[in-house]
Model the fold of this input.
Amino acid sequence: MILFDYFRSSAAYRLRIALNLKGLEAERRFVHLRKGEQRAAGYLEVNPQGLVPTLVIDGEAFTQSLAIIEYLDELHPEPPLLPRDAGDRAWVRSIALAIACDIHPVNNLRILKYLAHELQIDEPRRDAWYRHWIVDGFGALETRLAARATDRFCFGDSPTLADVFLVPQVANAQRLKVPMEPYPRIRAINEACLALPAFDHARPEVQPDAE
Ligand SMILES: N[C@@H](CCC(=O)N[C@@H](CS)C(=O)NCC(=O)O)C(=O)O
Done:
């Protein structure tokens, strides 16, 4: 398996966590997003969207972190990343999707570059944009988690897909200095996750390409 990765990519961070939870190792190829390597012809052949992560398994390129992680969960069911009950699975996926579809995409590098270059928006206002969408999303997530996440993690006493998506988004929030006081449940879950080696070893700061 080959993982196309970038230390600061939160979508790749999700996949690093999932691989660690499953005890799987992948050869790493680093795609430097700030240098624009995701748009190089060689990488676009692997992933025409020009995004990381991509996981190549037996020569086949898998893209989209959620699809890749669910695929890995199906190939390697232990430990499970989704609950057995269909209603619980929908709830866990709803947390992951709130992050993957509604918070993360508007703060992606290509969006920030468009704000900077095409719309001439300066860095303080770009950072305000970034924080706004995290605060908006985390407010709703905190309410949903406070109502249902009564154990250590988003769902129950072992990490699921929801935690795999939450922790990298918290890392983004912390990097942009979003005040985390309003989100005690998110903070507690993040701490519980990072106490596990699978999450700890996937952190951006400890990756070989970290700057
Ligand atoms: N929905 C995709 C998102 C992938 C994505 O947006 N990756 C970002 C890094 S977190 C990226 O490669 N950005 C490059 C760019 O915006 O040019 C997934 O979940 O895999």
About this structure: The radius of gyration is 17 Å. Strands lie at 2-5, 27-30, 54-57, 60-63.
